[in-house]
Design brief:
By secondary structure, the protein is mainly beta. The protein has helices spanning 15-18, 23-32; strands at 2-8, 34-37, 53-61, 66-76, 80-81, 84-85, 91-93, 95-98, 105-110, 114-125, 134-142, 145-146, 156-159, 165-169, 172-178, 182-186. It contains two helices and 16 strands.
């Protein structure tokens, strides 16, 4: 089981000491890419496990001061996109968009044939007043078991030398890495 994380990429100079995340960086960390996969890096023989994937997104705080938009998608191992369902089992399509999250909680799940599921999102401030805060919690499940995150927002990590994919968002460099490629969490 793999979880991919979007991490801010620091240069090996003074910027390592600063380590500040912008609002976009925090949002990208939580919502920019949550990719939950049943594959096992240690699996021998090319067998790929499938299962029911579910992602739950909850918001709290000054929710009226922000617009939170989400897009869910999933893939199975044989035919590409897989069907998505809501909490009550209602079919939503092969992808599902929430243009403005109005409830405190939204969830989306697959049938039992999913290989991985994604959730991407964006947050836009709708208030002219500064100091408003929005907390977004993303929880992923595979076959009813919560996928436990080993790192927290703001953690500095050391990852495998050839791990990850470099990306650039708003002139900031990030790297997407599998949680299993994180070797250590740096503590000061």
């Amino acid at each position: 089981m793999n979880v991919l994380l979007l991490c801010r990429k620091f240069k090996k100079d003074k910027s390592m000491k600063k380590g500040r995340f912008s609002l976009l960086g925090i949002v990208a960390l939580f919502l920019g890419l949550i990719l939950v996969s049943c594959s096992d890096d240690d699996d021998q023989g090319g067998v790929i496990d499938t299962g029911i994937h579910k992602i739950v997104v909850e918001q709290s705080g000054d929710i009226d001061a922000f617009e939170l938009g989400l897009v869910f998608g999933a893939v199975n191992t044989t035919s590409g996109p897989t069907k998505l369902y809501d909490e009550d089992g209602k079919y939503l399509g092969e992808s599902h968009s929430v243009t403005r999250m109005e409830d405190a909680k939204v969830s989306c799940q697959t049938g039992d044939d999913a290989f991985f599921m994604t959730c991407a999102g964006s947050v836009t401030s709708t208030s002219d007043v500064s100091g408003k805060k929005l907390k977004v919690l993303v929880t992923a499940y595979i076959d009813g078991k919560e996928v436990v995150m080993q790192v927290n927002v703001g953690d500095k990590v050391i990852y495998s030398k050839y791990a990850g994919t470099d990306v650039e968002l708003d002139k900031e460099e990030y790297i997407i890495v599998k949680q299993s490629d994180i070797l250590a969490i740096v503590t000061e």
